[in-house]
Design goal:
221 residues, alpha+beta, archaeoglobus fulgidus dsm 4304 fold, eight-stranded mixed sheet, 5 helices, 8 strands, globular, DNA-binding, Endonuclease V, hydrolase, cytoplasm, endonuclease, EC 3.1.21.7
DNA sequence: GCGACAG
DNA sequence: ATCTTGTCGC
């Protein structure tokens, strides 16, 4: 698939902040997706050689049946360290490499990490969505920022994730009795719709099938 | 100044 | 993310 827009990759946090504050204005948190959704993609990252090499895996599944349609893998030198709040600068370059090889353009992409549930409202899912001009959802396994009330143990329950008085996402129980997922709009999708798709992509396990498939690819090397 | 901190 | 065996619980 094609990349909608590019920008130079920063080497310092100061430069990264400038990019985040500039691109965040392009983020759309209302539903602007092509429905019915026929293909959903998941991305996962891995690292090799002490983290000096980044490995990105992409899996495109049919929707709603969640069958694997296509996969791709890409490697490239790691060029940015892991710094909370700047994850996208470390992972997106390799992810774009992997996505460029995909022939089946997905209608929606589920990312590992936050969407707008970020200090500057521009987590990795939003960043990727804006660069691709495509609907994306942030599905994180742990909290970056925000507060929320405890939620019931059964699947389907969720609570608003709040930061500075704003609802920035949701804490969602994707499976009964397990730790919740932190879901937020990435780009071109509302929170309510994002929650709906995440639930439809987690029929059996805590993590979406998309990221689980991508994860296996990245690990099988 | 003191913690918190996606993967 | 990554290093790693057994173990607890449904």
């Amino acid at each position: 698939m094609k990349i909608y827009q590019h920008h130079a990759w920063p080497s310092t946090v100061e430069e990264a902040i400038v990019i985040q504050e500039q691109l965040r204005n392009q983020v759309i948190t209302s539903d602007k997706l092509q429905e019915p959704v026929q293909y959903v993609a998941g991305v996962d990252m891995g690292f090799e050689a002490d983290g000096t090499i980044s490995r990105a895996a992409v899996a495109v599944l049919s929707f709603p049946d969640l069958q694997v349609i296509e996969t791709s893998l890409a490697h490239r030198p790691t060029s940015f360290p892991y710094i909370p709040g700047f994850l996208s600068f470390r992972e997106i370059p390799a992810v774009l490499d992997a996505l460029e090889k995909i022939k089946t353009t997905p209608d929606l992409i589920l990312c590992d990490g936050q969407g707008i549930a970020h200090p500057r409202r521009f987590g990795i899912a939003s960043h990727l969505g804006v660069l691709l001009d495509m609907p994306t959802i942030g599905v994180a396994k742990s909290l970056l920022i925000g507060k929320y009330e405890e939620l019931p143990e059964t699947r389907g329950n969720w609570r608003s994730l709040i930061h500075k008085g704003e609802i920035i996402g949701a804490v969602l129980r994707s499976r009964t009795g397990v730790k919740p997922l932190y879901v937020s709009s990435g780009h071109r999708i509302s929170l309510a719709t994002a929650i709906d798709y995440v639930l439809r992509c987690t029929p059996k396990y805590r993590l979406p099938e998309t990221t689980r498939i991508a994860d296996k690819l990245a690990s099988a090397r």
